[in-house]
Amino acid sequence: MRPTRQAWAVGALASALAVLAAVFARPLLLGATVLLGAWLLVRQVLFVRGVADALDSLTVRQVPAANAVRADAEIPVTLEATLDAPARLQLSVDGGVPTGATAAGPLSATLEPGDATTRGTTTVTWPVAGRHRFDRPTVTATDGLFAATIPVESRPTVTVEPRGPHSAHVGRGGDRVSIAQGEHDAGQRGPGLEPAELREYVPGDSADEIDWKATARLDTLHVREYETQTHRPTMLLVDHGAALAAGPPGESKLDYLRETALAIAANARELDDPLGLITVGDEGITSRIDPTTGPAAYLSIRRRLLELEPTGLDDDGAVPETVERAQPIPGPVPSPTRPRAALSALDGAGDPFARALEPFYAARTEYDIRFDAEPLLGAVRTALTGQDSRQWTVICTDDSDRDTLYETIRFARARGSRVLVLLAPTVLFATDELGDPDRASDRYLEFEELRRDLDRMDAVTAFEVAPEDRLSAVLEATRSRSRGELR
Amino acid sequence: MSDAATGGRIESTLVTERSSWSTAVGTIALVAAFGAAAGPSGVGAGVATALLWYGFGTPSAIAVGHVLLLVLFSGGVDPIALATAEVGLLAVLAAPLLGTRAPLRAVAGTLLAVAVLGGIGLLAAVSLPPWQAAAVTVGAVGLASYGLYRYGLVSLGLVDDDTPPTTDE
Predict the structure, then answer these.
(1) Which Pfam families does its entry note (chain B) (predicted)?
(2) Is residue A307 pLDDT above 50, yes or no?
(3) Which of B49, B60, B66 to probe by mutation at the A interface, max A CB count within 10 Å?
(4) Per the CB < 8 Å rule, is B118 touching A34?
């Protein structure tokens, strides 16, 4: 509780009259000091009681429009203050926007004397992922002479989820499957490190295999056998052409495929399998890492996967019309938040900062090998040239160029490689089509037909990679339609 | 807060609903008390104080009223006449409180505050030199105000209950 300027003025007046009384030796003026002092004290008591009564009947609520949002989302937050009975005080309520959020304007509302309810709304941006609890709102009450600021209870929480793929679904026709590989048991004895068994020497065994300690202990010749170690080389082929940019920012086809590729890379690392990576842009191979083991190789593959961004986008981050694909690229145009687009926005030529950054971004668009057409097929050719036929080839792409996809997989099979195809269904990344359930359902069934065709091929496994919520919505629409047709 | 809520007067919004009859009672009591204390010139001073009260609020009226009383009693103060005039000013002090939600309690509180502070001021004026009497009076007002400030903090729950940890010696 603090006095306002008016209360200080009255106090100063009372003191001034007391000084005059002393200076002029006129105790009569002390009567004014006494009356003014009584006036102040009574107002002070009235204020304390008035504030206590107002707080008893006051309800303050901070109401965010949503309790769970994505990072960088903007939602309106409303501050409501309601009195059971109007008060004679002015009550200013200030909301407690969390530190991790940014409010476009002050979150506040004022109840003038006689008002019973008020509300204020502002837009709050949530750039930081996590669970954010609102600070307690404060009520500043004043009667013109005194003011007091009191915190009140209303602390909702908002959960901010980071941008990026959520609940990525990998499976067949809506059924989730695991793509994690177990250990590859060769079922054979041979050179290795893991002891398998101790057996008696039989003619034909090499003298090198004799376990001399066991022979001395058991008094007959014994041979120790070991488990044969196997490793399966894995080659990841990740398409990052312009068509893979379709989808909301941070949740594009490429983002979902990237997550899946990262999971496969982590699995390969755990099993110590040799892992390689070829990234394919619209015009050819953008980077190539041959299958190898070791933490450094896995790290560089991981880093490269995380750095991937769709090629062929123009400076604004939009898909150019000249990109040739079997089907038009649906979905919202990606926002210009990509590094190259940001660089172009730096007003290039004369800016030394932009000039300094340009080589780093320019390096990303360089192609190791260019192809005139069908870059994915060219990449598979490159990947399988001179490679072990046991190699597991994992192709991460979408369904926008079906002919090339068939051709690519046939080629890989012809070379004896086992193939895993991870396909991002275009229909699930086109937000404009999800508004029409029938059309989305038709498009998904077309995709499913393609996936099944691929899956039927010998030594080929085809899975869909999609956002689980959108896939569920389309599947539900498909089932509803089927039930309707049956009736 | 804007002055619109108080009509430009120095006053709490908790007591701004001034009714016409309480204003009339206060004005009549003030003019009558001043007139009884100082005659026709007292009536004039009372009217002037009442106008000031109406226009600028109670603190101005009390301050100027006392200055006018000082002029009226420039030749010497008659205790009974002074007490009569003070009753008029007390009416000015109490009249606005009739518009509060608990008028009797507010008026009783005012009378109690005036009695306590007046008693202290009177005792000080009688027994101490003028400057010490002034200091005692102002000090009493300040001390009471600080006490109410602490009371306000406690009653509004603004005092942290947690006691700081003490170290065992």
Answers:
(1) DUF8163 (PF26496)
(2) yes
(3) B66
(4) yes
The Cα–Cα gap between A34 and A322 comes to 90
Q: Where are the beta strands (DSSP E) in A25-156?
A: 58-64, 68-70, 73-83, 90-96, 102-103, 108-111, 117-126, 130-133, 135-142, 146-151
Of residues A367, A444, A476, A459, the one with CA closest to residue A413: A459
Q: B12 vs A51: CB contact, 8 Å cut-off?
A: no
Task: Provide the 3-class DSSP secondary structure of residue A231.
Answer: coil
Please answer yes or no on whether A148 and B158 come within 8 Å at the CB atom.
yes
| Residue pairs spanning A and B at CB distance below 8 A | 177
Question: H or E segment at A301?
Answer: helix A295-307
User: Is A358 in contact with A343 (CB distance < 8 Å)?
Assistant: yes
CB contact at 8 A, A243 and A157: no
Of A417, A343, A349, A364, whose CA–CA distance to A386 is shortest?
A417
**What is the interface pTM, i.e. ipTM, of the complex?**
0.92
CA dist A179 and B26 (Å) reads 91
Q: How far is B169 from chain A (nearest CA, A)?
A: 37
User: In B, which residues are within 8 Å of A26 by CB distance?
Assistant: 70, 130
**Phi, psi of B52, rounded to the nearest 5 degrees:** -65, -40
> Rounded CA gap, A92 and A402, in Å?
63
Residues of A in contact with B74 (CB under 8 A): none
User: With contact defined as beta carbons under 8 Å apart, do B10 and B59 qualify?
Assistant: yes
Distance to chain A for B166, nearest Cα, Å: 28
B84 Cβ under 8 Å from any chain A Cβ: no
Res A40 pLDDT > 90: yes
Answer whether A22 sits within 8 Å of B133, measured CB to CB. yes
Please name which of A450, A448, A445 lies closest in space to residue A409, comparing C-alpha atoms.
Answer: A450
pLDDT in tens, chain B (169 residues): 545 455 567 888 888 766 778 888 889 998 999 888 888 888 999 999 999 888 888 999 999 999 998 888 887 778 888 889 889 999 989 888 887 888 899 999 999 999 999 999 999 988 988 899 999 999 999 999 999 999 999 988 888 766 666 655 4
Q: Name the minimum distance, in Å, from the CA of A54 to any CA of chain B.
A: 11
Task: Label residues A106-121 b or e (16+ Cβ within 10 Å = b).
Answer: ebbbebbbebeebebb
Domains of chain A: 1-97+129-162 (no CATH), 168-184+231-486 (3.40.50), 196-226 (no CATH)
Distances (CA, A) of A243 to A98, A262, A295, A363, B107: 39, 20, 32, 21, 82
In this prediction, residues A28-46 reach a mean pLDDT of: 92
